[in-house]
Amino acid sequence: MAVLLLTRDFMATDDNKQLVRRFIDEIFVAGRVEAIDELVAPDFVSHTWGFTDDGREKLRAATQHVHASLTDVAFGVEDLVAEGDRVAARVTSSATAIGDFMGVPAAGKHYTIGELHLFRVRDGMVAEHWHQHDALGLMRQLGALPG
Length: 147
What we know:
single chain
């Protein structure tokens, strides 16, 4: 019985990691807003970005805005760690700003920063998200702060 439970927990954890990797690839990197309905729970909450209501629609709008402002978007997944319904991702993200981004006018500058994302998965969908990133490094690379 214990082996069966361990196998089931491992499979669920592996499924959660695959879901998060797909979320990163399809939404963050490719900007595929149509993937949101498939990957994100209807009651999705973004704790960092303040999406406490209508989270799917706000994520859709944010994804469209980011992908209109950036090109060459890439996320290198450095670590993907899961336990229970939580998946933590340490990534290196990079892009080139071609439009106003994070309050900085378009400058055509490229950036590379480290980010941490924490996801809570429920019923095979992303239900919650938390995010931390190197904001100082981002602003320096975009030219908003002295380097």
